[in-house]
UniProtKB/TrEMBL annotation:
Localization: Cell membrane
Protein name: Undecaprenyl/decaprenyl-phosphate alpha-N-acetylglucosaminyl 1-phosphate transferase
Required cofactor(s): Mg(2+)
Keyword Iron found: no
Membrane topology type: Multi-pass membrane protein
InterPro entries in the record: Glycosyl_transferase_4
Superkingdom, natural source: Bacteria
Regions that span the bilayer: 50-69, 81-96, 108-130, 142-159, 165-184, 196-216, 260-282, 312-334, 340-358
Residues where Mg(2+) binds: N157, D225
Amino acid sequence: MRVYLFLLLIAAAVTFLSTPAARLLARRAGAMTAVRSRDVHDMVTPRLGGLAMFAGIAAAMLIASNVPFLEGLYQGSRQPWGILGAAALVCLLGAADDKWDLDWMTKLAGQILAAVLLAWQEVQLVSLPIGGVTLLSPRTSLILTVLVVVVCMNAVNFVDGLDGLAAGVMAIGGSAFFLYAYTLTRDVSANDYSSLATLITAVMIGACLGFLPHNLTRARIFMGDSGSMLLGLMLAASTITVTGQVDPARLSGADIFGQFLPILLPIGVMIIPILDFGLAVIRRIGSGKSPFHADKSHLHHRLLRLGHSKHGAVLIMYTWTVVICVGLLLPLLAPTTAVIGFWAAGLLFALLITFDPVRWRNGRHRKDSDARS
């Protein structure tokens, strides 16, 4: 665990220190986010934050390759370098979009190319986690891998609409997946706790935490497509390296739920981005537009129309992510009654703060007033 936390801190520190340079580069390159009718920010803001995030991820992974505890992950395997290469590709693709606003077909082609690169480097779905069911053919495996990677990248991209939203949601969800991957590895191996999925998730969390101080309320820089697609690819890669690689039924006390968890937990981590992505695609195709046509009906836009502040909308989406991810992990750690109680209390609390913005905001204002007095 200490090695993973060390690498997480390395990724966070490098990202944090690199972000001012990325902001300066964005200004000089003209990679700026203008204030458009569909946006919620009110000032021109630099993009290219993903370059700093990639710097943090790359630094941590390069250091990891020289750590004795993790040497086995790099020896005789193309997976770590394949993930880093695909991450570099989507980061550059996103940076080009941050600068020139590429059309959706070019972006999709680049995303598919990155997904194929992952599959070529053996980061590929080989079986379903339900009794180790082998997929029907290599072609099916490739198609599912590409589909998972492209959906994850676009889902994170779609949800990146408020200061600190995408980085925070991915840090929270990634933390849940990190704990699951680490626990799974410890339970199936008595001697070797090294895990590529745990490593990838740890450095991704670090990049998010290092970027957040620059991207919270009144953001000084946006991650842009270079960051959102990078995060989506990293989570997809960590999910793929777990799914089908380890039999979850070997977890102590695991039951049928445990066999579905490699599918359910990534969905839980990505539930907010995937829901936003799915609704946007349905909405846009239904109105005769491209699924990548920008609009002002994302989940965060709807929360703002309900009366929430920008900061409040971000906290609500954080809350939903915590409730879902913790709720999915609890069956492996707590009795059924505790799990049911958490789901009931968590969902009730999330629904109350989502659909009663006036009372929630008034309560916060009263607490602030009491604190000042």
